[in-house]
Write a structure and sequence with these properties.
The chain has a single domain, classed as Nuclear Transport Factor 2, Chain: A (Roll). The protein has seven helices and five strands. Strands 1-2-3-4-5 form a five-stranded antiparallel β-sheet. The N terminus is likely disordered. The longest helix is centred in the middle third of the chain and has 25 residues. It is an alpha+beta fold. The termini are far apart. α4 crosses α5 and α5 crosses α7.
Amino acid sequence: MNRIGLAKWLLSLSLTFAMLGIAIAGEPQEQLKQTTDKVLSVLSDPSLKSPNKTKERKGLILKIVDERFDWEEMARRSLSRHWAQRTSEEKKEFVTLIKGLLERVYMDKVEGYSWDKIIYEGERIDGDYATIKVKIYTEKDQTISVEYRTWKKGNQWLVYDFLIEGVGMVNNYRTQFNEIIAKSSYQELIKRLKAKSTQN
């Protein structure tokens, strides 16, 4: 192979790896986008807009969200050092409660925004972890910054935390939960979470 042929071969090889790199780097964002697009399709469906369709609409959205959110990892991180002290049954109960809490927060945000345009501002990948930044533009010319933190499980990039205007849901609850446990007990935390779940 002459010098020109070798140069062309090396250039072709480098472009191939570059294209593969772009495809791999875009995977977390692309998976999140697919989930978001599904949610938006439900929100924009005319047949689901009437008040008597609220329960059905929320059910469809939560089913979509369940596929992308790792509720157990969110529960573990929000309970922090107290997680290891819990029994299997306690962990299962806590996951159910934190899932319900975060689902309500997410649904309030989703249904509270007038979605006009979504811009994916990029992602940062570090091994099996990725951060995806999104900007939501509403009909009232407001912008809402959302940051999704994901990690890879098998072939899926699952959300283990999300920040809205810089406020992280998991970190926010971790602080609150630690304070309740420190001042009272884990049982008191569960009591409050159960009471909150019956209010919605």
